[in-house]
Amino acid sequence: MKILITGTSGGIGKAIAEKFLAEGHNVTGIDIREKTIDAENYTHMVSDISEDGLPEVDNVDILINNAGVQDSGRDIDVNLKGTIRVTEKYGVREGIKSVLFIASASAHTGAEFPQYAASKGGIIAYMKNVALRIAKYGATANSLSPGGVTTEINSKVMNDPSMWKRIMELTLIPKWASAEEIAEWAYFTTVVNKSMTAQDILIDNGEAAKAEFVW
């Protein structure tokens, strides 16, 4: 199948792209940064989803909206408005099989930067809207809401022993997910799953049960 993923140059997006490539799919990535994946079935396009004219990518089977920023002053423009631009262009159309959104545990708790939490909450609401509109094509739309994930964007707290200790005290299972684990969820939700739609899956090791943000 033809998979389009935003934000593939690092973190969760790169892990998702590598999972689909390993499973034999053709993957196109859109990122504001240059490519970091070297694979025969991978095509990379440099674009800012919030500002640039989006590139032409035809016949997308699965769309995964992962690109995002954190506490940038542009969180609403990139995370929410940019995601809407991408989805309306590539995902709401006949032939689409599945659309997935990477939201955040902060969409449930609000325990993070204000614009970031608002943008991710908006993604979940928009996901449900998309699910309603693409059901006529037999397609699903869902979202994943990770809590902490061991990626470079979180290095500030991961490398600070006192903050890391406090974070571990705030989770029922004292760990964070890896990007590769989130990629497995993304694959299941879009390829294996055929019946679940309009749902958000919270993957946070029990963080939401205590709901406190440490940075």
What is this entry, summarized?
By secondary structure, this protein is an alpha/beta fold.
Describe this entry's structure for a reader.
It is a single chain. It is built from seven helices and seven strands; from the N terminus they run E-H-E-E-E-H-E-H-H-E-H-H-H-E. It starts with a strand and ends in a 12-residue tail after the last strand. Strands 3-2-1-4-5-6-7 form a seven-stranded parallel sheet, sandwiched between helices. The chain is of the alpha/beta class and 215 residues long. Strand 4, helix 2 and strand 5 form a beta-alpha-beta unit. 37% of the residues lie in helices and 17% in strands. The protein is globular and about 50 Å long. The chain has a single domain, classed as NAD(P)-binding Rossmann-like Domain (Rossmann fold, 3-Layer(aba) Sandwich), CATH 3.40.50. The longest helix is centred in the middle third of the chain and has 21 residues. Helix 1 crosses helix 7 and helix 2 packs parallel to helix 4.
Strand coverage percent: 15-25%
Helix percent band:
25-40%
Oligomer: single chain
Q: Kindly report the name of the CATH homologous superfamily.
A: NAD(P)-binding Rossmann-like Domain
Continuous helix count: 7
Number of strands: 7
Provide the domain count: 1
Shape: globular
Q: What is the terminal-to-terminal distance?
A: 39 Å
Give the helix/strand class: alpha/beta
CATH topology: Rossmann fold
Give the uncertain stretches in residue-range form: none
Which CATH class?
Alpha Beta
- Overall residue-averaged pLDDT value: 95
Overview features:
single chain, 215 residues, Rossmann fold, 17% strand, 7 strands, seven-stranded parallel sheet
